[in-house]
Amino acid sequence: MKNMTEIIHHGDAETRRQGDKETRRGGDTEGLGIGTWDLGIAGRYWRLLKGRDRGTVAITFLLALPILMTVVGVLVQYTLLANAKLTVDRAVQAAARSAMTALPTDPVIGDRGGPAFVQRSALMTLEALSPAAAEVSDDGVTVADALAQVGANPPASYAARYAYAQQATQVTILPIDGSGANYAQDAAPRVHITVQYDFRLTVPLLKDVIGRSDTVAGITGRFMTLTSGLDVQLSHGREAATDGVGEP
Fold it and tell me: Does the global pTM surpass 0.85?
């Protein structure tokens, strides 16, 4: 009987030891997702390293953040420059369409036509790309009022933005193919129109690397000059000869 009792107690103790071992196994591997394997010392080191990973990730993120912001800044600034270049291309196209009819004018009209109309067509396109100038020009007010009279309803800042474009833009008209600049007396002359525009850079940090430091229309900052050109054939001048001997 005594031997039987000892065997039973011995079996109970063995069962408890087995249960404790299983409990320790479960505790060691809990959260690791590796079942009930007993990793022992390796498991303890794994949990220690897992806790340190949080600080490592934070430090890595902080080190990579400036690089990430630089890449984002480059992409944003490149997009803005690409949009600005497309706008300057549209401006020179508007100037070319205006030159086809505005340059072959009667000399009696004088300064009220010709190159002034060509430049105004380019400025009206570049206004959408421009910041507000420190001072509003008379021509900007005139154009804004004219647009309002035809129902275009320009924004309140239109005149100031036009004034910036007026000071930031240079429109050059050069005759080509040996033709002169007397457009009223020339038969369908060809000219090359160039539009140069000082685009203001606005992306932080990156703007200090590219462009030039300047003050345009009362605005101090960094600027980059964008250029676009186009060849255009003008209409016949009103005094152009049609029979080769000077007679209309």
Answer: no
